[in-house]
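Hey,

The postdoc asked me to send both predictions to you directly instead of through the lab channel. I've kept everything plain text so nothing gets mangled by the mail client. Protein one:
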Amino acid sequence: MSNSPSRVVYFFDGFNFYHSLKEKHREYLWLDYWRLAEIFTPKTNKLSNVLLFTTYAKWRPESYMRHKKYLSVLRSRGVEIILGKFYKKMRGCQICGNLYEAHEEKQTDINIAVSMLTWAIQDRFDELVIGSADSDLIPAIKALRSAHPDKKITLLFPLGRKSFDLKNLGLKVMHVKKKHLASSQLPREVRMNDGSVVKRPVNWS
């Protein structure tokens, strides 16, 4: 039996975390996901990888540029970024009945599910921590447990988020609290490897 420390990887659902903060806790949006993972990883284990699954809202130029710069900072911290897509979708106004163009985020759940199974097959972790409260991940979690019962799965719920369906899986559940977010903020100004400086967005406070 190996005495090596357990290899722990984190898969964060970016939009699940973003929506848990954007309305009432914008002061925590400048979040360092690597640092957050460090806080929840016991010293006896090895934090191997941190993946953030997210999507660019390209039809909103200012938001897109803020997000792009933010992800460049996270990459410099060692976070791997897995991008999904937004798709256009026509919806009807419930008041007047007129159609309008909306955008719906796709692929994040699928990307997380595929990565879970692929990384398990490749034996890239001993423990997977899933940072999400999205019950759509349940089929993938069940498949992973069935195919790789030796792999430990832990759930990390974003601030104020719950999922009784996920809790009913019988997995260990951890909860992100304000103190964890406060201890995981990036510096207001981050100097990149090329000498450029990325500043925390003014409206992220």
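Protein two:
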Amino acid sequence: MGERKCPQKGASGCLSPLYSHAPSLPSPARDPWTVNCSLDGLFPAVEAEVHLTLAEQELHCTPLYGKDSVLATASVKANAEEEGTQQLACVVTLGGQDRKWKENVILYRFPAPNLTLSEPEVSEGTVVTVECEAQAGVVVSLSGLPSGTPAPRAQFQLNASAADHRRSFSCSAALLVAGHLMHKNQTRELRVLYGPRLDQTDCPGNWTWEEGSQQTLRCQAWGNPVPELKCRRKGDDALLPIGDLRPVKREVAGTYLCQARSPRGVVTREVVVNVTCDNILIIILVAVAGILGTVSTAAYLYNRQRKIQKYKLQKAQEAAAMKLNTPATPP
């Protein structure tokens, strides 16, 4: 349709080429989509009438008038019975003249796939069936299942373990419409109930800290439901502070029994806490002990030597006295 110029002011009206905007892709039935129909070069624009139809059914549209233009917008929601190729048309009338535009659109029905778990929450060790199903003509792919023959249905089974807790399963559905590939997805989450766990990685069995250092005892119990964790020292049941940053005291040393408890069971783990003293203090104690040992040895040797000298002096004095008391032998 070629471009036309409007007559002089005062004429009953004129129409220039029509520009309409409709979906370039197939449109889903039951899902609303918007159609715009616009026309420029109108005079007087406010007298223009716009009609939008789908499958020869009038659509409710709202016109917006500009100085020399009109824009009509309609929200379309087709019925399932209207699936397939339908005609979308726009007619603008002004001063006894019409401008028409027509285009075929493809309406299709494509609901999301139905993804189900035989049970959304199970105990550890339970067999769970994961199934995805869609309408005929749709191809589904299910996470966790190797690709196979294209089909509208897929399923597999798994033996639920603690590692499957909060595992997400997804199903993707694909539908080819008029050369365009459409996709829709669905997801489900599995919850697994399992007893308490305490292992070496999350709760080490041996801790060695230096006295006075800032340390945090980390001991994490796992399980669903989440277990309660307490660590008590053998002998006096003193509680070990877990997860708190604090200075280490020698009083905290000892062997503890860490117990994780939930409605699904109890598990116990032994944890040993060693506290080492400051090296400077050890050096001082060793030095003091060495000095005391040296002084004691010197004192012992001095007293022994003094006693020996005293003993020799005493013997010499006794010998001299005996010599004086002995009478002289006559010639």
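Summary for protein two, as requested: The longest helix spans residues 279-325.

Thanks,
C.
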